[in-house]
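Every protein is a chain of amino acids, and every chain bends into a shape of its own. The fold becomes a row of whole numbers, each drawn from a learned catalogue of backbone shapes. The protein below has been through that process, and both of its lines are reproduced in full.
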Amino acid sequence: MRKKSAWIHTLWIAAVLSLLVAQHPADALAGPFHFGFKKSVGGQLPSINEEGFKDVVMKHGAIFLGDTTKKELYLTFDNGYENGYTAKVLDVLKEKQVPAIFFVTGHYVKDQPELVKRMTAEGHLVGNHSWTHPDMTQISAEQIRTELEKVKEQVNTLTGQQAMTYLRPPRGIFSDNVLAVSKESGYTNVFWSVAYKDWDVNMQKGAGFAYNQVVAQLHPGAVILLHTVSKDNAAALGSIIDEARKQGYEFKSLDQMSVKTYGN
């Protein structure tokens, strides 16, 4: 009896372990994740193959790269708060005739209505960066929808922009659920394939540094993430645009992106 009991117990443990192993991939794909990527070097394509979330990003049609067969670039800016440089950024974009998208928070919409109006008036897209900039993996589906709807409604009231179809999850933190809920709400999540630590206002290193960081990562189909709180970005933006065009790149709006890819 003891041998039979031990044998049954062993089978039971094996069955439980087998079930846990079988479930592990699904659990792993649930998240949460913090977006990261292998940077482009020398014009080679960046990659998210080793980050552990590629299948989730692809599943929900999130943007990481545009058409990598074409020398197209997409400028995106995160606007959580105003630090005095967005007007300069807009001036450069207007002078250079370059489209962009600005992902705004509720704080930004309330604090800087004139700048938000200017964004749309000058032909740029305004995207959703959530109302309060929370970690959306830690709130309910209903709260996610509320965060997004409040931004959309306020931007519509302020600017008349009817559609808001692009979302950048706060801090780049996401999960399968966050992407699913936001997709159901009509959003395409937008990540990036060019970025550097530009958001730290106490670590600005000059326009030359910003220029070198961005230009070194340029590649076909690049989605460029910049933060408008950066003094360096505002100072370097014109030169970055000029150099990119010199290299044969063309700047496009996200609405013009026809193909999404996910690196090598």
Remarks:
- The first strand starts at residue 33 and ends at 34.
- The chain has a mean pLDDT of 90.
- The CA atoms of residues 134 and 171 lie 8 Å apart.
- The beta strands are 33-34, 72-79, 100-104, 125-128, 166-167, 173-174, 188-189, 222-227, 250-251.
